[in-house]
Write a structure and sequence with these properties.
By secondary structure, this protein is an alpha/beta fold. The protein is built from 9 helices and 10 strands. Helix 3 packs across helix 4 and helix 6 runs parallel beside helix 7. Pfam families: ABC_tran.
Length: 259
């Protein structure tokens, strides 16, 4: 189980060069003139953690929401598991979504449900053939994986921000996704809790062999988790490299993220 050990050292840069996510020429405009994405191109290889940096409003979250169909782009191509998700039927898209975990910035827990009910609801929605005792076992395991077994009967209002993020992550993990999309996983958390969440992201990658895109403003999180970093500027990918490479970039704007 994930909690058994904490390996906070990153593995070497992902050796696999098998693309699991490919985005080509992605465009999205809101309203008449608010052009957010102006031709985003990116590839994420299997087993890789890709961090996307950018100023607020640069389109980071819009990009990952397009991947799972929460936002429909104006044009472009998005291939996940070698399937063009923009051309899929609703049922086929839902099958893809089950293989993709999405950790929302807020954690997105249902306030009226206990922790147990939040996780069980997700299982019942996507795996209707599970018996009640199987659901309970999966819920307990998921909470154990994020170190919060004792929170099973708590309500979201009883949890700290960091605990809510962990429960949100447990709910994502319960479907055993192959890809996880993290939207600002450490926003609003103190330094110690932010590091704990970043370490948990690493643990999940090492144990589950997941592929991830991590949207963040937290440079400590980026340094700890990223195999590769892309920087969004003016609706396109402006720079790409490892943390160490971009930290030494000759581009003053890119380097400003690391100061």
């Amino acid at each position: 189980m994930i909690k058994e050990e904490k390996n906070t050292e990153k593995e070497p840069k992902a050796k696999s060069k098998t693309p699991i996510i490919e985005i080509k020429n992605l465009h999205k405009t809101f309203g008449k003139n608010n052009k957010i994405l102006k031709g985003v191109n990116l590839t994420v290889n299997q087993g890789e953690d890709l961090v996307i940096l950018g100023r607020s409003g640069s389109g980071k979250s819009v990009t990952i929401k397009c991947i799972v169909g929460l936002i429909e782009p104006d044009k472009g191509e998005i291939k996940v598991f070698d399937e063009n998700v923009l051309n899929l039927s609703k049922s086929d898209l839902n099958e893809i979504r089950v293989r993709i975990g999405f950790l929302f910035q807020s954690g997105a827990l249902y306030d009226s449900m206990s922790v147990r009910e939040n996780l069980a609801f997700t299982l019942r929605k996507h795996k209707r053939d599970l018996a009640p005792e199987e659901i309970e076992a999966e819920v307990v395991e998921a909470l154990d994986n994020v170190g919060l077994s004792d929170a099973i009967n708590k309500m979201p209002s009883e949890l700290s921000g960091g605990m809510q993020k962990r429960i949100g992550l447990a709910r994502t993990l319960i479907l055993k996704p192959e890809i996880i999309l993290y939207d600002e996983p450490t926003t609003g958390l103190d330094t110690i809790t932010s590091r704990e969440i970043s370490e948990l992201i690493l643990d999940i990658k090492h144990k589950r062999k997941t592929t991830s895109i991590i949207i963040t403003h937290d440079m400590a999180c980026a340094k700890l988790t990223a195999d590769r970093i892309m920087v969004l500027k003016d609706g396109v990918i402006h720079a790409e490299g490892t943390y160490e490479e971009l930290e030494k970039s000759e581009d003053e704007w890119v380097r400003s993220f690391f100061e």
